[in-house]
Amino acid sequence: MSEQADIILVGGGVLGAAIAYQLIRKRAGRVLLLERNDLASGSTCRAEGLLLSANQAGALAPFIRQTRATLNNLSDQLADDLGFRQVGSIRTAASQARLVQLMGLVADCASQGQPFELLTGDSLRQQVPWLATELISRAVHFPEDGWIDPFRLTAGYLRAAQAHAQQARVKTDQLEVRTRCGVTRLRRQGRRVIGVTTESGQAIDAPLVINAAGVWASLLAEELAQDGPLPNLPFVPLRQHHWVTKPTAAFPASQPIVVIPEARAVTRPNGGGLQLSVQELESLPFDARKLSGDAQALAQAEVDNPWRTLAESAAELRHFFPGILASHWDFYVANLEAHTPDGYPLLGAWPGLEGLLVATGLGGQAVAASAGLAEVIADLALGQDNPHDLSRFALTRFGRVDAYGADFRHRCLTARADRQKATL
Predict the structure, then answer these.
(1) Is the pTM of this model over 0.90?
(2) For residue 305, what are the contacts with CB-CB under 8 A and spacing of at least 6?
(3) Which of 240, 357, 362, 369 could lock onto 63 through a cystine, CB 3.0 to 4.6 A?
(4) What's the CA gap between 70 and 213, in Å, rounded?
(5) Could you tell me which of 395, 41, 71 has the C-alpha nearest to residue 233?
(6) Handedness of CA 69, 75, 77, 78 (dihedral sign)
């Protein structure tokens, strides 16, 4: 006899954990979270962890704000600050085009009552001594922004979910988390998904399965795509680089996040040093079908000589960060992010099939928008109304495209480059 659950949730990253939290909070019954490896061991553990409330991500902005508000609730519930560091962010503009974009962001913040400060050259130098301020035509400080360790946030969501389950009057509201329990296929009965089969061959039944497996979500959808309206999930895994310096007084833990769009770079504090994240001018796409099912997939994304790649990135960045090559860089990692052509996630039901929801394609916004988007999925799972227009997140919005084809990859690459110009 197969095991039974009310909802099976596939993926133990930050989004999967957030969905589990929202489901239990809304009394969804027995929720079984299955993770192929360890919790937050995939893209989550290598994410930047930025929470930028002043954000030009359009439709994602309210979900980012909701995540920030949820952090406060989690901290109160768990009596733990979860490590959120409200260091603020500084957005810079060195060209007329960037200046127009930055001032548009300022106008949006002013209309929404979000605090900001226009910085003078002296105050900018005081806050970011390593920045070549003479190249900056305008800098704006957003004091409510900050960053969080994605691993701690993932654990916090699950701890809060367990606490809700223990306090529930109805003891059927439960969350069980199983690591080292990969899902190999979705079990179907006609046009309905009725459960999953695990790597050990175990069958688990549930009236609803949620696929929140990140860049690996396509692998679970392959079998469905063979006879459905979608050839595959329309996203492409793209790479981002991160370098971190050794701890030094030159980069204090209180330093703000700094966004330098002309160099496609973002910095934040990390372990007493500076973390530098750079998006490639021409991002390297990866084929989701060829990714291994563990952390080795992320190692595939790492370049053979990261210091040469840093030197190449420094060709543009050194104009703003003159000491980049002289800094004592300690280690390097790369990450893979699931990107769509319009920069918005894939959320909702698989077309023509009952019992399956998908939540993936968040690009670099998985941490920042996690709680807000997780509530959307929880509402869909429970048949509850949600105030947001979800059509812009529909799985079918790009039509019948081949996500593994050269044309679609090019669309994602071009769109990401355009978003870098407009929003980084």
Answers:
(1) yes
(2) none
(3) 369
(4) 22
(5) 395
(6) positive
